[in-house]
Every structure is written in C-alpha cells, then in structure tokens.
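seq:
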Amino acid sequence: MVEKTIERKNNRMVKGLLIILLFIGLITLAGCWSSRELNEQAFVIGAGIDLDEDGKIKVTVQLIQLKKVKKKEELATLVLASKGETLFEAIRKFIPLTGREMLWYHLQMIVIGPTIAQKDITPFLDFFIRNHEIRPTPSVIFSQVPTEKILTARSPLESITALGITKGLEAQNRSLSFAPQIQVYQFNQMMLSPGKVGYAPMIYRIKKGVHPLALVEGMAVIKGGKWVGELNSKETRGVLWVRGEVEGGILVIPIPGTKEENKVTGKISLEIMRNNTSIKPVLKEGDLSVTLDIKSTMNIGEILGPLQVDRRTLEDIKHNAAMEIKREVNSSLGKTQKKWKADTYGIKDAVHRKYPDYWKKNKEKWEDIFSDLPIEVNVSVDIPGQGLAKHSEEK
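struct:
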C-alpha cells in the first residue's frame, strides 16, 4: 500500500511538473513553436556524449513519453542513441528513428562519458552553447561509464531518471556538499579561462535491488580541457570550503577524550549552517603566499557516546571540527595543487584582483607558481548555545 501511494503521488507530481514545463516552454517559444503539434515533438530531458571505437560521436538521449505520463506508467522515458561525425549530425539522425523533431528546451543534464573526457571537452559543448533552444542551465556531470548506462538507470522516487538525478544533485548540494552543482554556462566559462581549469560532479551507476541506480558524488577535475582525475566526497568538500560554496552538510568528529589506541569510541554529528571564506594573497619581496580564512557556524545534531557539555568540552568540539575542515582542505590540495597543478579554488582570481601587475607578469606561469604556492589554512568554528544538548552516562 505504501509503495502504491508513493507511486501515485510521484506520477501526479511528474505530470504536474511536465504540464508546467510545457506551458512555460510553449509561451517562451511561441514565435517558433506555436504552429507545431505537441505530439510531433520528442522532448529531450537528458543527454550523454561518448566516442565510439571508430572515433564517431555517440549521443544518447532520454526522451519523455507523454502518453506514458498520461497513463501514469512507472517508466515514462525512452533512451535512444545515435552516431555521427559531429554532435549535430548525430542529433539529426534521431529524426528517422523517432519520426519527430527533438525539442531541447527542457534538457536537465548533460552527461560526459570517459572517452570524451580524455580529450579537450570544449568543442563538444559548442552545440549546447550555440543552440538557441537550449537554456544555459542544464547540469554538466562526468561519468566513469558510458553515458547510456547512466541514462538507463532508475531513480528511486522519479519515473523520469534525469529529473531524479538533477533533483538529487540539488538536494545533496544543500544537505551534504559532497558534489558541486555546475551548469553548462558555468562550465563553459571555466573552459574559456586560462589553462582551461574547471570541475564538475561525478556520477556512478550502482546496483541496488532489481534496478541499477545513479549516484552523484565527488568531483571531476579538468585541466587543459581534459579530465585529469577525480576527488572523493570529502576532498570535494575541501574544494568547496575554500570557494565558500559549502551550503550545508554533516561534519562527523570524535568526542573529545574518546580516542583510545587509534580507535574513536564516541562521535558527534555537527550540522553545517553558515560559512564564509576569505582568500588573502600576500606578496612580499616578490614571493607570493596565500592565507585561507574559513569561518563556519554549526549546530550539534547528534552525540553518539557519553559527553557532558560544558565550556571546556565545547571548545574541544570546536577545535576538533576546525581540524576536520582543515584536513578536508589539505586533502584536496594534496591532489589539485601538488599532483595536478590545477587551481580549482579561484586563488588566481584573488591574486589578479589584489596584485594585477604581478598577475599580468606571471599569469602564463601560474600553473608552476600554484603548485609550489605556500598556502596557510586557518579555520574557526562557532557553535551557538541553542544547538547544544547535554549528555552523560546513565547512572
């Protein structure tokens, strides 16, 4: 009964969302589309790009099947693939398959496969940037498996996979900060920056129950337009701490005094509420260094173990939280700065603003300067009293 109730609510929500999206799209595109019947269109909700063995571009699309939405069927999408010498040609080849023209206004995400990510990604985005039917807001996501495997995965609570993935990305961005949310226009701006350095979320196909699911977590790091590596969830949050883009999440730290023989016997969950980061470049006698000042406000959400909260233990909790944030930042720096020489933090922008003459003289050498740049990380944590609860061992 519970599953049927969820399914009925889900179908009503999807149907309502589609009606709103179609209504907005038809109003916005009235000049171009008013003479076209809805059933003559194929609505693209998700797209994936790969290269096949012959070097041809393979485009995989997830289409909304309006008839199935009306009938409240469990899976209301169709996944098709087409190949071409160019992305545009591959897309046009869908017309003989579907008997309909593709409508891109409702595109939610663009998934980039591993074969594309090994090359300069910039040219493959040209179609999405240039096409006037595509909004600048679809999410860019990198996959370690062919994109067709992602687009054919299921979403636990959505009959349209692409909607489930993008909603999940938005929700985890607010509640976990384990992956960034990057729209196509933002990613294109990164690829137009010096060194073509950027980042985007990662997506994985996992097996849970009968149907495979798609999980968004971590970050792909781009340098020179190519995918050079990935960061795990904690390392990704390390980048977001520096960028001031941690919107929320849970920070798990040991209870002060519960670490015995390298084993933590008690833990605290802190809910991240507000954050602010200041990037401060310092140029002294021609030598550049950077100080990162991170300030975070948190609440205690859970204490798993014995703890009597007083002023001393509260200061210890703040200290442990600051050390954990510092570990996440330094862990990300270990890869991005030392291994890949990729400034994903926006430090170059801070240097450019404060020392424009230095930047003009050294911007071509920034990759090497950044890799050896002394970076000091300072973290302060505030825990307001209203977030505290006293715990003690039962007597």
